[in-house]
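Entry:
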Amino acid sequence: MALDVNHAAQGSSKSQFSIQKADSLNDVNLQFNQWQTQASTLPFRHPDRAVIAHNIATCHMSRYKATRQKRDLDQVIVGYAEALLRGMNHPPMNIVTFEHLTRALVIRFHDFGAREDLDHIILHLRHLSALPLGVIGIKRLDVLNALAEALRRRFEVGGRLEDIEDLILLLRYVITMVPPATDDYRLVARNLANAWKTKYEQTDESEDLTEAISHCRAVLTSCPLDHPSRSSCLRDLADMVGSRSERSGDLNDVEDAVALYQELLDLLDKEGSNRMWVLMNLATVYHNRFRQTYDSEDLEKAIGWYREVLLLCPPDHKSKDKLLINLGFSLISRFENFGRMDCLEEAISLYRAALRICPRGHPRRQLSLRGLAHAMSLRCLRTHSIEDLEESINLRRENLALTPPGHPMRSEILYSLSVRLHTQYTWTGDMSCIEEGIEHLYEASELVKSGHPHSRHIPHLLAVNLLQRFRHYGADEDIADAIKHHRTSISLISEGHPKVSSMLTNIANDLCFIFSRTGDAEHLEESIALYRSAVEYPFSSAHDRLNAAKSWTVTAHSTLHTSALIAYRKALSLLQRAIDLGPTVQTRHEYISGRDIEHLRTLPMDAASYAIESRAYEEAIEMLEQGRALLWSGMRSLRTPLEHLREVDKSLADEFTEISQALEAIITTTHVRDFVQTSAGTDDDDVAIGRKDTFARDLTEKRRLSEELDKVVLRIQALPGFEDFWRPVPFRHLQTAAMGGPVVIINLSEYRSDILIVRSNHPVVHIPTPTNFFHRVTYLAHQLSETRKRYRLESKKYDRVLRQTLEELSELVGQPVVKRLMELGIPEQSRIWLCPTSVLASLPIHAAGPISSHINVKRYFCDIYVCSYTPSLSALMASRSGSLSGSASGRPSLFIIGQPDETLPGVDSETRSIESLVGSSSVTRITGDAATPENVVAHLPMHPWVHFACHGVLQPGRPFESSFLLQHNTHLTLIRIAKTHLPTAELAFLAACHTAELAEDGTPDEVLHLTAAMQFSGFRSVIGTMWAMADEDGKDLSEYFYSKILAAGAPVASYEQSARALRHATQKLRTEKGVSLERWVNFVHYGA
């Protein structure tokens, strides 16, 4: 007997109360009247009245089947109940009547949903199961299964945990009644597994889910491969194992779930059904595996499958909201690992769409609230938007209001709300946020189950809040409780969890604070030990380990702990690793420019400052080289010169070249983030269904190629003499960058700032700076930048600020460096190279002055020495590498690109003047319609010298889109220039605005401007501009420059004379044209 309406409505064929078959409602009514008449002739207590009551109830059932009138069904129940109350002399007939009454109750519950009927059904089934059912041909197993179904339905209606517990007890008994490996066994075992799973969803007890999986696995084991129910058994088991993997993080469960879903997908492919559902769950499991292993291929597979399912999903599908939420969750993982804001923005739009599908009262609204709240939290941390933070908090408050006390999700909501309240306190200083957070966390600690992912986070955040309250009020019990909760948090950390590094770092940070208040060295040593463990923990992401290393460096540096240099070395190594995870330079820049890693951008300068303090000058330079200009150095490593290797092992060199070229093609890819298809899920906006997600393809291919290249590099390093191949460059090699003259490195760090002079074959020379050097330089850079934004070219205000800036730079840098160079015997007019760090890279150090001298003449730094810039020592070394054939005629082959317009009327005369000076036979000049990006790129390899005369376009925040503006508003972008490889290029003169200006994206040490791109592509010497240039200066400066370099006295014009020629040209602008300070300071030289 099942709790089935169709079955229940049929009645029992074993009834002894036969009624002639009624062919119509009239016949039923006739029989009903006959039984009513007969009853009226009998005394009230006559024994036959029980039989008549039964038959009248049966007539009412026939009439209900015809009319569907509830009053007939009510009379059925009344009639059978009367028959039972009167009792019949034949006991089996009492059992039949009881069974009919139960079926009638089932029908009424199904058709009209009265909760009290369900309660009566359960009572009647319990009683019926104890009766001797065999005498009427009913199986006891059917009654027990019906009772199980009734308990399940009552739980669905009322949510009483007792019903599920009763159901489990009942099914554990029933399963002993059926033989194994039969359909009856599989039915009961599946029901038992689902009951345990339902209990787990209510209690969050992992043991309940383990029981569910055990029974479900038993069902699958007993199910033959060709059994029609095998796919549904696989589905149940895969779901349960997937749920456990998400909860526990056990990689074995993840692998098991993947295998189960793959098997199920194969079956469904054959059956051609339900593919959408399986793909969605398989995507979820792959996402879970990514969260354990940080294997980016798993994440990209998950995103790809979610997108495929979204294409298959009808607009009104009941699970559309879950799909949107899951895709949003996976895109957030991509954002967290690669810093792609477009992924975060898409996730937010997906969550908003899911929320609209789930209005107030929808059972899954909480999932949408949770996802959107998390996404808004991430965006507020990236943008520092107080509006986003407040929305995140409000969404969590709504979620909390929908979650009753005792609900297993309540602890998680309380915790996440407390996290953002702590953020709000950090931004606003409102102590009520801390007080409310502590209250929520105490409640959460009472609710959270042992082993829950948040069980270790809650005591830690509670300790953090208690420490904040201690800072405010100074109550000793708060700091004592904080230590206690930290100890609890450490004890709950499980091996293999991917967030261990993050948790250990947070605890170590708080122990450092406690050390600062108590002076107890034990807390300091414990924090250092925790930092070390966090950095070396292999299962956490490179980003989390990098944060741990950075915190370690801060603590060790500020306390002068002996582990500081070790911490800095590990941090710099992890910085490179974290950045290299991005498949393209664009995604790598998004990562390094993100606000959430702002604290990491000073890492190389801070490391160098500590090494300098320890008088380890060579190591300081190595650290600066390892941690700065990472985007350029990462690409430059793929263009490593292989001449020596080719002589030793040509095939290995060719293999390295082939793989590195393929990698560079991916790394320099730019992604077009556009929609393939949209689906109007709401009236407000569209939801992305599919995207040209080339990021996933590039990420997978980049990883494959990187692994292949790593193997090739290991083989190269095994060759004698190549042990240092592709390793961080040691100082003994970096020092060769100074073979043409001293390199002046200016390190800017809040700890201490210093000037180092590198000379070939000499020890590094150290020049100390004033203690306020960092703050003075930072202010100068800010003031100059803000003034330039507000005032146009030739502004008196800007001229005054620039003059003040140069005077201060003279005091801070120019005069100390000139004095020391003189002491070192470096004569005036020698070439020197400047390598500034941090915001110093945006200041015109070459023009520092006036600098006093024994002759009564106003001179600037560049008047005393011929100054060039270099982003790094490696870049300067690269500008001298390789051999150049030169020009037999002494006249270089020059390629001129001009793009005149109404704002640049002087471009045409500028380009013609240059052509006249160089000689038309040596010049290729394209202007106007011929100056397309494609045409320019095609001509670049043909000419060692190039001159641009056009607009330069700076793109703040998007440096790889900075460009030369060419024909019909087309752009030759920085990234397109970087893709070119010009081994015979020599000199590039960029007579355009902003070509050596750093965009304000917070990454000055990456030196991302057009001048650096030209240098990377192969040009040995590049002339650029630090800001906007005047149109008339193009012609004058070019004439002075080319006249000087072509008449330098050498038989062949050399790019190596370009720095002196530029210095000559700017001096002529000053003396003969009388241009403003701003206009001549603007021009700078990079490279050899």
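Confidence is low (pLDDT under 50) at residues 1-22, 672-686, 885-889.
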